[in-house]
Amino acid sequence: MRKFIFALAAATAFAGSAAHAEMATYAVDPTHTFATFEISHFGASVNRARFDKKEGSVQLDKAARTGKVELTLHMDSVNSGTAPFNKHLQSAEIFDTEKFPTAKFVGDQFTFDGDKVVSVSGNLTIKGKTQPVTFKANQFACYDSPMVKREVCGGDFETTIDRTAFGVDYGVAYGFPKNVRIVAQIEAIKQ
């Protein structure tokens, strides 16, 4: 009986340390990570912009199929390609970047298909309001980067939000839609 208890304790300790050893931390690579949004403009064209300044981290345990991602966007780095539109996006009417300088996504519910992430669910905070969202992966892969000589994991994700749930309701009375599509390309380097 003593041997059985010792073997069980050793197996439990090994399993616990093995599970812990599987969690890897990745730093978001800002040169391969972009968050863009798009919204219809009276059904005629589509307004698009991205956030140029961002940072974050990813924790990923491929064996346990778990993880966590944290991505912070600096809202004053919004870039539509047109300076006056950028200024309007930063204004109190839309993002109010002076009062709410960042937006943040924290996702800790990963869904896998085999070894590929197919979605990440969590909470998105914009203008101090937090709502649950799920980003669907259009593609996902991990690879050994020949440039940085480390593993890199990343994907192309998208979701659609109701912007009014975050207090971004400018133009709704004019006929602008509530729904905004967010596309996020993210790559992160194993640390």
Care to describe what's here?
There is one protein chain. The chain has 191 residues and is an alpha+beta fold. It is built from two helices and eleven strands, in the order αββββββαβββββ. It has helices at residues 2-22, 83-90, and strands at 24-28, 34-41, 45-51, 54-61, 66-74, 78-79, 102-113, 116-126, 129-144, 151-162, 179-190. The protein has an eight-stranded antiparallel beta barrel.
Layout: helices, strands, pairs:
Elements: H1 2-22, E1 24-28, E2 34-41, E3 45-51, E4 54-61, E5 66-74, E6 78-79, H2 83-90, E7 102-113, E8 116-126, E9 129-144, E10 151-162, E11 179-190
Antiparallel strand pairs: 1-4, 1-11, 2-3, 2-11, 3-6, 4-5, 5-7, 7-8, 8-9, 9-10, 10-11
What's a quick, concise take on this entry?
With 191 residues, the protein is α+β, with helices and mostly antiparallel strands. It is built from two helices and eleven strands.
Descriptive keywords:
191 residues, alpha+beta, 8-stranded antiparallel β-barrel, 15% helix, disordered N terminus
Distance between the termini: 43 Å
Global outline: elongated
Question: What is the oligomeric state here?
Answer: single chain
Largest sheet: 8 strands, antiparallel, barrel
Estimate the helix proportion, in percent. Answer: 10-25%
| Mean pLDDT score | 91
Structural class: alpha+beta
Fraction in beta strands: over 45%
Put simply, the count of helices is 2
The tally of beta strands, per DSSP, is 11
Strand order of the largest sheet: 1-4-5-7-8-9-10-11
Order of helices and strands: HEEEEEEHEEEEE
Overall radius of gyration: 20 Å
Detail the poorly predicted runs.
Answer: 1-19
